[in-house]
Amino acid sequence: MATPVLHIGNKNYSSWSMRSWLALKWGGIPFEEQIIPLGGEGYGRSEIKEVRAVSPSGRVPALHVGDTVIYESLAICEWAAEQAPSLWPADPLVRAEARAVSSEMHAGFFALRRDMSCNVRRRLSFTPNWPADTRTDLERLFELWGGLRARYGSDGQFLFGQRSIADAMFAPVATRLRTYKVETPDVAQAYCAAIFADPVFKEWEAAGEAEPWTLEQTEALYR
Ligand SMILES: N[C@@H](CCC(=O)N[C@@H](CS)C(=O)NCC(=O)O)C(=O)O
């Protein structure tokens, strides 16, 4: 079979792309990547022409495996875990829990995502005043991370001890806390530090920092 091709957005701005990319890399799965810079005509409406050409939903990431197009970041992560089962925790119940928190991220944290658009390389010098629904998302996030770290912390630095898809799902959130100078409890800060120290995450981050593209509407936030 030909090498799978992962179509992604630019690394500085595309949080959903980061999730799938991390899972594939952590799983040691060979793939090629094709970057489509986000923005321009059709952006925000799933109508970027170049994205439509590779993804039926008009959104990235999309993984082409032979003739099959796997879109939706979590579906790509699940495909990766079929090749590399250690991407999920080994215990069935813990694995179910890891799937639950990954789905919660995938389907939720709407206010946090709305107010903290992914911008890996940016650092705000102040903390914006978050609306109530964003504060609620942050409280839930810290409760979730804190609970998992309390239970699985003895097995490693990640949410379920060892690196898993749950960390791929939350890694972009760690960057958002850093970008927007969010007040972050110690346990959550330590978890973010573990993500930032991960060599595969660093590879993504370095590539994002070096990208030439600028997404004006994201850069304009809180200026
Ligand atoms: N639920 C999708 C969301 C994908 C998504 O929103 N991707 C953004 C880039 S991070 C996108 O393609 N946006 C194009 C647009 O808004 O037109 C997933 O998990 O893959």
Automatic annotation (TrEMBL):
Q: Which domain of life is it from?
A: Bacteria
Q: Which GO terms describe its molecular function?
A: glutathione transferase activity; maleylacetoacetate isomerase activity; maleylpyruvate isomerase activity
Q: What is its EC number?
A: 5.2.1.4
Domain GST N-terminal, by residue range, is: 4-88
Sorted alphabetically, the keyword list is: Isomerase, Pyruvate
| Gene that this sequence comes from | nagL_2
- What is the name attached to this protein's record? Maleylpyruvate isomerase
Annotated GO biological process: glutathione metabolic process; L-phenylalanine catabolic process
Query: Which InterPro entries does the entry link to?
Result: Glutathione-S-Trfase_C_sf (IPR036282), Glutathione_S-Trfase (IPR040079), Glutathione_S-Trfase_N (IPR004045), Thioredoxin-like_sf (IPR036249)
Q: Please tell me which top-level EC class this enzyme sits in.
A: isomerase
